Fold each of these.
Amino acid sequence: MLQRDRQQAGSHLILYDGVCGLCNRLNAFVLKHDKRAVFHFASIQSPKGRSILNQHGRNPDDLDTFYLIADYKSAAPQVMERAQAGLFVLKVIGAPWSLAGLVGFLPSRLLNFGYDCIATNRYRIFGKYDQCVLPAVEHQERFIDL
């Protein structure tokens, strides 16, 4: 399915570690730049986030993985994770961020190695909250786990 068709088929769901400083910064970035509001969010730690990951055969206890469910409301959602999920977000947001997708020609193994290096150290570098961060009131309708 083409990217344009995906954008029209329904919203995409970002599943993130709710206590991770980097993940919450990513959410703030997406909320700021996603002018069409095609992305929705749920923390992996929430009952809703855990349920969705279980439905797709993923481990909700794996907080080191960034997940994206493309067309999550459709009959044929597509699960992406790690580097692939991040590149998808940047492509859908559009220029100039979509230019990062040019690294997509690199092997997934290499892209995921870079992702894993960051994910393993993200709490130390970006901090960790004691509990999941609540979104600002103006963005709460985009968080399906509230």
Amino acid sequence: MARRYLRDFAFRLAVFLLVVWTYCFRAQWLDFTAGGPGVWLRALLWLGVLSSMLVQLNPNSGLTTGCLKQYPSGFDPLPNYDAAKLRAALREQDRGALKVAVVWLVVNLTFGLLYRRGVLGIPDLTLLCALAFLCDLVCVLFFCPFQTFLMKNRCCVNCRIFAWGSWMMAAPLMCVPHWYAQSLFWTGVLVLVVWEVRLRRHPERFWFGSNRRLQCGQCTEQLCRYKFPRSPRSR
């Protein structure tokens, strides 16, 4: 699993570096509202981001348990778990998730306001989207500011907002009235809504005190081996 995610990270890094080069030397290619040269690059970026979102809706995708715990196949129930502790854990996770939502919305609505006022252009927002596309895996593999400062979860396998990465990476484009931007943003919202509905209907799948697969002793993925701060498994 760690090797798979490292390969995915290498791909996203290559995509981001390509976007940076294009931004520096052919910025007009990143303006998907203008047409003209760079159609292949814009289509590649759109397809890459969209595919990374849609794969999370497939329970057989082979993604990390952090994503697949929402499905019945990702749930290994612990007998006689404490329902009161589960509710308390969910409330604590919800508080952290609310902090993340407020921070990310404020930041990206600011980008939207700057775009509406002409301070930022489509190439700037495309670059921000590509950066978020890369940072989604930086958070999984190396360092996650949301985990460290807001969520306080023990590792990505236990992350309350794992599937939020889809709408978060498309959020810089949410104020752009173009089908490229809107299709990515609303697909991300769809992934988020499906996740949240499953969380409310089956909270026991999302807590290590009720789902054995989320416990460090049962983890075989070792995604935390490169991460700071380390999870309890790797300390």
Amino acid sequence: MAYFPELRLRRLRRTEALRSMVRESHVDVKDLIYPLFVVESHNLKQEVISMPGVFRYSPDLLPRELEEIARLGIPALLLFGIPREKDEVGSSAYDSEGVVQEAIRVIKGSTPELVVVTDVCLCEYTDHGHCGVVSDGYVDNDRTLELLAEMAVSHAEAGADIVAPSDMMDGRVGTIREALDENGFEHIPILSYAAKYASAFYGPFREAAESSPRFGDRRSYQMDPPNWREALREVEQDVAEGADLIMIKPALAYLDVIQRVRLAVNCPVVAYNVSGEYAMVKAAAQRGWVEERQIVIEILTAIKRAGADLTVTYHAREAASWLQESK
């Protein structure tokens, strides 16, 4: 075995050309999914205060934004809807004329090449802010399943390419798969938020989506942050029920979970670089404490290195532009 001075590991780091030749993990624009907030309104483009550079759009203003997203080479969007009216069962979530359903039709009419992934959860649509039907102060798992399935089918009918249940109810993947198949949508994949943790990193998203719980929290259905073996059980169960892709959320504090899941399953693994992670980078960059471009690419590379095939990230537009420049 060779030792120093014969073995000099710095030899392959001497120039950018050498470094690029032996680089082990590569982030590509095709790895990115851009989250998009749509509001039941008209002629509205409203910046999310806690997420600089992220906006909420009414469906009529989407085409101009979609053109830019497609030009950058970003292949997919993850849609979240904010309705005008909310109620205790989130009825606008599965309304065929709902805001997400309308946005899907706009996207498919203007930029059909974009893959449309839709978030399937009731939290943005209920007046109490929880991810399911509430009975006696507790989210009723089984009553919620039927509504999630109805929501997923309505998205597929509007033209969604992938449905993504994020509610963390037990059995929702199997229930949604059955409903899609029964309604002629056996070709629509399910991206399951299989390991979604009860995280403090979601704060800015809840402002953007107007989805903060009006009472209590979501710890009775989202995962406990210290657990990783439980994440594998969640993933295995969702794959067994018919999930085509699985997601870990958040990303940065759960890179170990991403890696363990990657080793455990053969289906595509998606990570969600969430709102709080984005907001921290933006705040530090605005103060000149970090170099934004370098740190964003480093974060996305870390997520890829951990084992994610795809990354949902609010940095997608900027990252896509930077990646194009570096080619």
